[in-house]
Amino acid sequence: MNSSTDTEVILEEIAHGVVDVLGYGVAAIARLEGDTLVMTNVAGPPEVVAQILNRRTPAEQILDEFRQADRWGILRFVPAGRMSEERLRAAWIPELETDTQDPDAWHPEHALYAPLYSAGGELLGNMAVDLPADNRVPSIDDRELLEMFAVQAGVALSNARERERLTDRVRLDRMLTTVAGSGTQHGLAQALGQAVAAVAECLGTAQVWARTFPIDAQGRELGAATPRPFTPEVDVPQLRDDLRALETLPVLIELGVDDADAPHLPRSREQLQERMRAIHADRMVVCPLVSQDELVGYAVLGFARHSRAMTTGEADAVLEVGRLLGQIVRASRVLETEQRLVQELRELARYRSELIATISHELKTPLTAILGHAELIADRQPDLSSIDAIIRNAQRLGLLVSNLLHYSRIQGRRETVRRAVDLAELCEASVDLLGIRAKQSNVSLAFTTPELGPVVVFGDPEELARVIDNMVDNAVKYTPEDGSVTVAMAVSDHEVSVEVTDTGIGISSADQAHVFSAFHRSTNPNALSIPGTGLGLPIAQRIAESHGGTLELTSQLGVGSTFRFTLPLRSSRVPVD
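Given the sequence above, the corresponding structure tokens read:
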């Protein structure tokens, strides 16, 4: 048997075999669907087949009859008089005259069943026969023959059940995989749409819709539905209140279209039933979307009239869908919060840069005037000692304003004109520029010139010079008398590095973590006594990174520091302006 069609054919042949071979007037096979036995295969007169086929009987009623029956091997015989009046009214009773003088004569209210079990003892269905040959109670030999047909029917149903279980497992796994994968969508709305479509396809629903709630006042309320699109009118606000009132989550809640009472849905029952009637559904299943014990939404599955009940496996899969969607909703909300915070930080950084640039521009004009007038007064009255202090501090403020303006431009990623630059030439120029200050501080400053000639990189010569000047200036500034500063250059196949090593006061491990942060000043009292803005190194690092390079530090407190500036190397064959 390779398909459900094969099973139907075999069951049909078994039912007709009981009638044609064993001589019974009617043979009917019922399959268990949920908690109901559904008559799927009937052999006998056409008018009887029409009456019995597709008849649905609660499995518990048949099991109750089994308990009252006489055991004939695997068969169950219920003599006339044992069946309840209610069951007799629901059963098909043949029109048959009974020979009261014959104790083995077949009575119309006799019932003969063959329960169909799997090898594990699971009830799969039932085979019922009526009107035996010669209208007499079957003999032992006849019973044995009937048992053979019953065994074949049980095997067919058992194989079909195993095949159904495998198919269901694959089907449910595909649904869960699709729902889990919906979390990779670019937005929560798309994820919900993909998830409800997967649920509808897997479970054959008449309608599915999902609704999400904000978490901690974050995120929007979203909805998705299929096959009818989601609209605000579909939502049932009272359902959220009912679900929040539940003591245990997650849980599936089933509601029938005509249910007069729903203990778990007291506020939303009537509205949900209105939604069912609008989509011609017979029942609904409500599944909360839960993440970290918090209700973040719900999904509602509508099933058409006469649709079978969900199996245990399907119910577990729907609960897993609720859990997966809950995780997706929470992850989406967290991502939305992170994106909003990132945008706010970017806006704050932009505002800070604009503020720094504006203030710097506003300071520059009056500062230039102050410095100019101070120098004019110094020329006319050189004996005024306070003028030198005014000029010196105005120059410090000018340097600070210049650094602030440059820092704001670097933060704004200002486009620069780049060209081939000889890095060795920039190092020589920096050593020459700061040589006078080093000599005044009694600090030895030397540059080890590479023997390879020009060392060409591609960049903005002014910005690259600023990096080297800052490294050398810091080294001279923070090196005490009789100390030394060495500028060296190393060239490899693909990059060049400039190392500035000093025997200065060094930098502590705690300060090294913040040395490239804007406006940071050392916690070392000896360093704080030396004027600075805390912007030189941050600017230098950003210039290095914008040129595809790095600026690194190794230092030991009280011993000295080494700053290493590395850049990609450009071929020396490129001419230098």
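The two ends are 86 Å apart (CA to CA). Try to locate this feature in the token string yourself.
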